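Self-study notes.
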Amino acid sequence: MAQSDWHYPRKPFTHDSFVALTRGPVAAMSLFGPRRTGKTEFLLHDLGAHAARYGHRVLYASFWQTSVAPLSLLIYAVTEALRPRSYADRVADWLRHPPIKIRVGPDKGPGAVEIDLSERREARLGEDLLLLDDLLGQLANPAKPALLLLDEVQELGTAQGGTEIMAGLRTALDRRRDGLKTVFTGSSQIGLNRIFSSREAPLYRFAAPLTLPPLGPDFVTHQLAVFHRVFQRRLDPATAQEFFERFGGNPMVFQRWLMTLGQYRDLAEAAAADQTADALARDLEFDRIWLGLQTHHRAMARILAERGHDPFGETGAARYEALTGQTAPIPQTRQSHVRTLARRGLADQWDKEWRLTDPLFETWVLERPEGEV
């Protein structure tokens, strides 16, 4: 799997993370980053690829892929990491063909175990945890620690059997701290805190927290250079930087804008920006989400998006009244409105500050007329 020219390598962050894991005192890290900001690309194409080049076995598993059988998915990922195939080939196969049925052990004979990821397996939980422990023991290598890259791990917090899986995983990793190093990622700080900061959680204080650093002007410069090589068209750097900042430095949105300009050579850059924004809103169904909220929920979403008010204090109350024309409810009621947004996956706490979960939705909300609350 050749590295795409469009991939922007986060070289300093990759180096520092790799050194901290393989030569530092920590056995695990938890990496937070908002949705669609490049966490998975960093894991697969930066940290994972870097470790593989230095001879470390690398395991990747995304818990978005199955909420039914996360333990079976993890067993599959360890089994794949143990096979004598290149890291690039395994990643390419994983991304093209997410597993549905997996086979652990020899291809034939009594030692083979077949697991259907579409079926619930509560009765086999204990046996599967023992199997996982055994496989992790085979993967561990104190001389060159194996890297476990576990994506969107907050899904384990609500998965059936998730507590038992996390407890078994911690035991297995604790026993092999020199031979196994882990990076957990998540797009919800509430979800990650539930796993790593709650005293009753099996992974309590197991991982050192990290935050995915934002991309800066160098990313824009890199993307414009690749765009020029591919499409033989130069774009205005200032306009590109302005669009990049409009969507909070989101790499996926920026690349989509570039592809729009590449497909439609005569389209002006500003027109492509509006077309890209409209297309994203349609694809992600922001209108449907917005209309599914009641007025008080939309008002609180707008206040969170603006980030300039204490949503539960006096400034938040004044902004609520300005948006709705109604008397602001008491702080406890406004807190319940925000918790409703959180239950719907629309709000989250970032460093104790409530914000909208999706930066793209946040930008869309801010660009709506205030009167539409």
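Second protein, same conventions, sequence then structure:
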Amino acid sequence: MQDLDAGTFEAAISGGPVVVDFWAPWCRPCHAIEPLLEELAGSAEGRVTFAKLNIDEHPQIAARYEVLSIPTVTLFERGEARTTVVGARPRGHFERAFADWL
């Protein structure tokens, strides 16, 4: 998964579908879903890009997308947020939420 920052975020979400994991290093549920998201990234390679954004380092971006709880995982397409999953969920939940793109 690609690490995003203030300089790369807009370009990353402007194109094809990209799943952004809004996370923080101290967040245990964020660490719990990371392997799951990496598995999804591997199975969706070429169709969907997976990336993550540390909200502690980039609170202004998290605020812009109203990230109030983490983990928050949002699928963007052409710069627009299309669907969001809040909280640590099982793989099937993410697969259903992102089914139209995976």
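Instructor comment on the second fold: The mean pLDDT is 95.
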